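Quick one: structure for this chain?
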Amino acid sequence: PVISSLLPIRQALGKNLHDSIDVRRSKAKAVEMHIERAEDSGVNWPLVVMGLSLALFGFIIYYVIPLALLSMQLSLLLNIFFMLLIMMLQGLVMLSINAQYILERVLVYTLLFWDKLAIRTVVLKNLVAHRRRNRKTTMMYALSLGFIIFTFVSYDVQINSMVYMSLQRSGTPIKATVRYVDEENAGRISNVEAWENWAANNPNIEAYGWASYDLEHSCPHYAETDVSNLGRVFSDYNDFFSVPPGLFGVLTESFLRPKEVDDSDSFGLLEKLYTPIGTGSALLGTVYKRILHLTDLSSHFLTVFDYENEYYYSTADVASKTIVYRMKPVAFMNGAPFFKFSQFPAVRGQDLLVGYPTWRLMCQQQFTSMDQIPLGSFFAKPIDPEDGQVLDNIEAGMRSLVSTGPTYSMYVSDYRDILEPIKQANIAMNFFFSFTVIVAMAISFFSLMSSMYTNIYEQAKEIGILRAVGMPYGWLQRVYIY
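Got it. Here's what it folds into:
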């Protein structure tokens, strides 16, 4: 209230004595003329503020944004983009005000074509007389509604992103994951056959599959698992998983987004890992094509495994504690269900998928057979992911199997449990935004009513003149309603 009263007070006190005590002339001014002496003019503060604003804008564009990109400060970058979008909103409002005169004439002649020409002419002249006050009301309407809509859309995009990420990381609507891993029971699931028999005989399950636990925690003598270029100049940490050839048919396929795939054969993405040339190959995130300087799918990269200190070898030779494998990508992935792939440089620590034979070889053949490979996640594809009863039946069966297994074995996760808090927050925020819109509209309504009352009050003499020359009362009503 204090800030909103500053401009009216300044305008009232800024009038000269003649205009202040003149009660005979109309207060509405369609045209104003100001005569100023050049030597009497002081600092042009609007021009100074505009110059400082543009200088700050240039500093942000040419320094702050590159700094945020180089230092990977995404929060700073998002705040800058948010500020730029607000400035764009204000700029579009100002641009629409510049086109106000043209829009007024277009709307009057388009919507009031059926009315008399005299009324249309008086309406246009009336709009010209009150353009300055109407412009302020227009800005208030546009900025308040525009900001609320922009905030609501930003929130909606954020919520949809959270839902998308939750579904992507889940892989399937319901899954079971290893709860606890130690060196003695690294992802061991004692009742694998019971899980598979239950899934095969459940009419609500269309398909099922396993994914191994990550290599670093399954092979306790490994301290870190990395991918690197051939010169070992650029490297990054990755989680290594072994997957069966048909797993992508079990997971939610809408999240599967390969960027570049080896098309030398007709096998599927994971099936390629089990071909003769697929042994020693992997599915790699698209971002590593640039980071590791891979020109195409025929290029090679390294997988580097560091041993725990004094765990596997007793020698102090550092080189003997590092195992390196030369591998080739069969596909570059922009995204996949459950697994972490991306094409953006800010997303590091992604996943790497290999076949079971390759995974066993990487673990220095610690496991004598494929049956001993530690399994980390069990996925079940329901026949109807939208049917709540089907999902409830699958969840109940999984929880029953978990209850009969070891305490460290597995836990069941349902994506509906993840989405429920998001839905509750979404309902609360929708009420909040609706309430905000109502409040903004109520404030704008009273502002518009006050502006309309002032416009008519200041034109009392003009209304009397129009009535004196014979304009009917109904015509005057239509003029001000328009």
